[in-house]
Amino acid sequence: MPVKRLFSKYGLENHGITNVRKVHWNHNTPLLYEEIIRNGEGCLAHLGPIVVRTGLHTGRAAKDKFIVEEPDSKAKIWWGEVNRPFSQEQFELLFRRCQAYLQGRDLYVQDCFAGYDPRYRLPIRVITETAWHNLFARNMFIQAKPEQLVDHVPEFTVLHVPNFQAIPEVDGTHSEAFIILNLQKKLILIGGTSYAGEIKKSIFTVLNYLLPQENVLSMHCSANIGNNDDVALFFGLSGTGKTTLSADPHRKLIGDDEHGWSENGIFNFEGGCYAKVINLSRESEPEIYQTTRRFGTILENVGIDDITRRLDFNDASLTENTRAAYPLSHIPNALKESMAGHPKNVIMLTADAFGVMPPIAKLTPEQAMYHFISGYTAKVAGTEAGVTEPQATFSACFGAPFMVLHPSRYAELLADKIRKHEVNCWLVNTGWSGGPYGVGKRMAIKYTRALLNAALDGSLNKVSYQTDPVFGVQVPTSCPGVPQEILQPRNTWSDKEAYDKKAQHLATLFVENFRQFEDKAPERVKEAGPRPTVHAV
Prior knowledge:
Low-confidence stretches: 381-387
CATH topology of the largest domain: Phosphoenolpyruvate Carboxykinase, domain 3
Strand content: 15-25%
Number of domains: 3
Number of helices: 14
CATH class of the largest domain: Alpha Beta
Largest sheet: 9 strands, mixed
Structural class: alpha/beta
Number of strands: 31
């Protein structure tokens, strides 16, 4: 049976790509499955997902990310450990080597969009040397309609060549892997790594540069909406419960990772989800579990029995960072249009392993800016080699590796929108209570959900509050369904003096981390942080 291919008039020669063997234009999921199996790129699992391996690279290569230094964007970029400069000359040489590498090879092209709001939608093109990465792009971005493909002209293009390895001494890279964004040429080069997350995060990085300049806040967060059209945003680093808590069966999911906040409201950047699935179970996360039993889902580095083709989500032999990439349509309660109004609540999640932060606290706009810029959570013993006790982790805007502009720019946009739309802001600790990790206990999920429900339905707006003497936030004195004694973390510690010392210690870490942002932070925001010189009583 002949296959109808959907070509774009904007050919690969516009990207300087010539002399390739065959171009697979805009294949749908079944066609890409056939290519994946035919090429030996992955295997079919029980009930239909495709299982792939990413080799040595099983997570983001933070030190291998660069931005080309050029006149138009140079003054705007937050240069440093997050955004490392790459010369225009180095980029051209590396790009030419990639062009030569691609000659005589098959390529897969997926033309799609980033951003559901048509006013800010970015036409993109993802060119890959493997079929499974092309399927990943099809899952994760917004699919173009057939009638849009012929005239599709990408604003930004991702050239993905995982089997091409850089030579650091020749190419000026950190290692054989590279993720290089050229804002002037509107081109992203990714090579030396098969970890698919680099594709989606590279486009997120582009949007983090473009959208704030149009007064749109780009956010690394999940979002959902209740029956009363009440939108909630969930910020949080890995391990804080962002995906679990936003996947609420009583609320519709707008998106699980990347969103924009414009003058019109919230919109998802993506057409899919990219969930961590280590130790996934039907009981803990039923909706995500069901996606792993669907045709079209890609499973990265998930354990599989070679004979039965059944999955083992507890298998961490390759990595703890096992992933599932699936379209939003796989989630039964996903909001089809992926757009909604302005949020009524913003939730910032932290898993405080020191056990000193309240399970929920209300924030002023200035405190919201401070905690947004800080992006705090904590690692616990056993999560990484060499971690033997709780360690504070700070990631600006809850997504520092993808923030191109200075964090204060995103924080100012957040504060402006919070004030304008009278949004309630909450800091929620899903971590430890009654003592630090190893002494206290992890906050029960039923209590966290009860606190969140009370915040979202307005119940917490009707109770009295006390000011935390160290962190300065407002802590409710009561909440339906939650024991009163756990609301004030000091009350849960048997050793009050030990609590005071630990709270002072964490407050000091906050202050030390924030020093790097003080030069651009308003005085009212600097004053909104913890006060380590104030002793708890």
